[in-house]
Specification:
Largest sheet: 10 strands, antiparallel
Number of helices: 6
Radius of gyration: 23 Å
Order of helices and strands: HHEEEEEEEEEEEEHHHH
Structural class: alpha+beta
Distance between the termini: 24 Å
Number of strands: 12
CATH class of the largest domain: Mainly Beta
Helix content: 25-40%
CATH topology of the largest domain: Lipocalin
Number of domains: 2
CATH architecture of the largest domain: Beta Barrel
Shape: elongated
């Protein structure tokens, strides 16, 4: 089974950390969406444990695509979306699950994030779809299962990173009156990287935070970029572009307070962000016309 992951926005917390001193007043500016997919170099797999005396059932995870939101200011984490394809598992009696699709039920994911260690934990409800006939075991697709997830985010150069995580839980399966406990563990290894336009905005945030200006000017500049990031996260590129355009006007009007080289660098960076969004919009429109 194949799944086409939608284009998603991502932000790298490493670059945002450079701006922490001036962006701390805006919690949303530290909210980062990490769009991750299968790490092709490290396998991922799903395991069912039926208890003593019964062999474990293990299946390969063929694809994983999710968006993990972390907020380094609030210390929170949650899955915004989650889609996973798993090869068939064999249950007691030789019953096959058939192909499995896993999703997180929207709005159920909540958790915490430690910005110092990169560790996160979440709790959510996983919706399991399967193509096999599991009615004899008292299961009809889809099945909602509770799960606890935990993992570590390792940030790498060039605004990329790896996420190693595992979600686990227990449930009962079997016909009424004959249920037996089953433990499950899903070991997932993924990799993330930002889109070009998103990366350029991240760089602009870091550049603005590094410019030596008065707190008043810094608050105005970083506030406009925080607004741009919020709008971009919401998919409102008109509002995001307006915020970056206001950022350019503000830099130009504050020329007497900002060194020429710094001002030129900020203005150039802002135009790169705007051009990136325009190019992405043209690409999207062209794809829609195909």
């Amino acid at each position: 089974m194949k799944h086409a992951a939608p284009v998603r926005l991502v932000r790298n917390v490493v670059c945002l950390a450079l701006a922490a001193a001036t962006l701390a007043s805006s919690a949303s500016a530290q909210s980062v969406n990490l769009s991750a997919s299968n790490d092709l170099n490290v396998p991922s797999f799903f395991t069912l444990d039926f208890g003593p005396g019964i062999p474990h059932s293990i299946a390969n995870i063929s694809s994983t695509d999710y968006v993990l939101n972390i907020n380094s200011t609030l210390g929170t984490a949650r899955f915004v979306s989650y889609h996973q394809e798993i090869e068939p598992l064999t249950l007691p009696g030789g019953v096959s699950t058939g192909d499995i699709t896993v999703e997180v039920v929207p709005g159920t994911s909540v958790g915490s994030f430690n910005r110092n260690t990169g560790e996160f934990t979440t709790t959510e409800t996983y919706r399991i779809h399967f193509t096999g006939n599991l009615a004899p075991l008292g299961m009809v697709s889809p099945v909602d299962l509770p799960g606890d997830s935990g993992g570590t985010i390792a940030f790498l150069p060039a605004r990329t990173g790896d996420i190693h995580s595992e979600w686990i839980g227990t449930t009962l399966i079997g016909p009424p009156g004959f249920e037996f406990p089953v433990s499950y563990a899903c070991t997932v290894n993924t990799h993330f990287q930002p889109e070009l336009a998103q990366a350029e905005l991240i760089d602009l945030v870091a550049a603005a935070a590094a410019v030596p200006v008065s707190p008043r000017v810094a608050n105005v500049l970083t506030g406009l970029l925080a607004n741009a990031m919020d709008a971009e996260d919401a998919g409102d590129f008109a509002a995001a572009s307006a915020a970056v355009t206001s950022f350019v006007r503000t830099v130009k009007s504050a020329r007497s307070l900002i060194a020429n080289d710094d001002a030129a660098r900020l203005i150039t960076g802002a135009h790169e962000v705007l051009n990136g969004w325009q190019n992405a919009e043209r690409t999207t429109r062209a794809a829609d016309l195909r």
